[in-house]
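I have been asked to look over a protein record a colleague put together. What it holds is a sequence and that sequence's fold in token form. Please read both lines and tell me whether the tokens look consistent with the sequence. I do not need a full report, just your reasoning and any doubts. This is what I was given:
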Amino acid sequence: MRRERVRDLLTRVADGSTPVEHALDALATEPEESLGFATLDHHRALRQGFPEVVYGGGKTVHQVVAIAQRIAEHGDGGLVSRGGSDAVAPLLDALPGLEYNAVAGTCYLRSPAPPALALQSLLIITAGTSDLPVAEEAAVTAGAMACPVERLTDVGVAGIHRLLARRDVINAAGVIVVVAGMDGALASVVGGLARVPVIAVPTSVGYGAAFGGIAPLLTMLNSCAAGVTVVNIDNGFGAAVAAARILHR
């Protein structure tokens, strides 16, 4: 249950329009619920502003659907990341209105009462088209967390003029997420241009010496641009959550 919904419930109790017993019933399942194979954290939205996200990797289709249903029943929407293509149809059947993003591999159910949008936007910059799955995961996550999202796609350092031509977009952003594989150099370039927080996401895109993302990870960690923050390989979700927390402060 989001803070906004709890605040509204308490306001209605205070003005007498909602009985105390009704409010207690609404909060009865907080803060956790056991499904046997999972223990759901229904206070996640109250503490952090967004309900628990279902990471589909390693879970069966039944587990993914059951967890997503129980989270959605609390009325705050929900997000499934990396659920696998075999889970998409069962999720769409179980949760009408679910939005599937095939590039990101995400399933998103909008909240009927979403929080207010952040005042500034998140700009997601990708070095190459091959980085789009990770970038789109970040975009869907940030959008679900009520952040306006802008994109600059395929503007890596091999053609740096493509990036420099969009300085207006870079200057207008509130936070920037840079998604890059291979040499990972784009994060340092953007970090040297932008005045706002820059979050770098190394991807596993690249030839053998990229070592599945280790090479861009090390490049980003060793960035000569001050203040660039780095998340784990292919972790578009984590970068978007960090960005959303900054934008909503």
